[in-house]
Amino acid sequence: MITYSPRQEDYRDLAHSLATFTSLTQIKTMFFGFNGILLADDFVYLNTEAIESTLIDETFENYAVFPVSLNEQLWGSIMCDATNVSKKRLFLSRSYLQTIMNGIIDSDSLGEIKVWEPLTTDQISQINYLHALFGKHKQPNSPLTTATTPAHAMKLDQLDDQDAASRSIALAVNYIHQNIQQSLSLNEVAQKAFLSPSYLSRLFKKYLHVNFVEYVNNQKVALAQEKLALSQDSVQQISNQIGFSQTSYFTKIFKRKTGLTPSEFRQRNHTIQKIYTIPRKLDWQSNESVYDISKNFFKANHINYFADSTEGTTYVNKIGDLGDTDGNRGWVYTVDGQQPLQSADETPANDKSVIQWVYTNYSQAEAPSSKEAATPSHATSKSTKS
């Protein structure tokens, strides 16, 4: 059993030795101890915020994670930049790092250090999955919520398990939807999903076909459109309600997405009576249209809808209790703040972040991208009722 911890001098010597190893091999190397100490760049980091900041700033493409035991107890992990590094070099690095650490730590007092083979991608994915499971059931004041170990200390850039990746991106998306009225950063959401920021960014592009910032902004703009159309809150109030600290920046994002300023949007859409918002989910299939996704959403939420056909074109003319009224009022749809010119069944949903169905006056509805008056948004289908 370990009777006492390494001395501060030991940690300083280890940090210096790892920095020398990095310089000689050109393999960036760090050590994170499970007592909350990070050795990186010839420094010893003890402060939690400094550790998190250092790890967030790293831009490794891939990590090799070597578990480290001290006197047969798991002590920490060595993380090496494995980008363009062969397995043979990693094997030699493991042996060399073990020799370095044993040369510094007093084995007679603390025990022998052993650097283990690097974790496989499957092992890391299972650790990530286990962490996620614990996260679902942890109590607000439990040790799991107050642990100082950064959740992104292990980067999962080599994760090949599609199910594990899906679970991770689902955690991120759910967190975004639950906290969309707050300011959200990539680092924050990555920590909640137990991933590195760089890896989460790649997952967004792979699974949602949009980068993280665009996805979040699309959700925020959709929420802002609802509030602008259906409430009397000021633009500044709405900006604050959806997590923007500066109204000017909110206005810039809103106009870039919709083609209108928030005030212009409110003025031109004062006849809107109802909006259904459908955020992007992982189960959207690549071959599904906006109409397909909308039908699934209505059915899942027990919302009645009706589609009719005119001259071979089928369009949605009733959702819930609201339907076409003498051809003047009815449903139009938008995707990511824009109203497409195509019918809903001709618009692919695969690369979209949010769909909205809007009940308004046709004469008032606008296609923001063209600033031209819109016609009813048709949803072509082989059947006339759903």
UniProtKB/TrEMBL annotation:
SMART domains: HTH_ARAC. Residues 366-386 are annotated as: Disordered. Keywords: DNA-binding, Transcription, Transcription regulation. It comes from the Bacteria. Coiled coil: none annotated. Pfam families: DUF4430 (PF14478), HTH_18 (PF12833). The keyword DNA-binding applies. Residues 170-268 form the HTH araC/xylS-type domain. Residues 377-386 have a biased composition (Polar residues). PANTHER family: ARAC-FAMILY TRANSCRIPTIONAL REGULATOR, REGULATORY PROTEIN POCR. This is HTH araC/xylS-type domain-containing protein. The lineage of its organism: Bacteria, Bacillati, Bacillota, Bacilli, Lactobacillales.
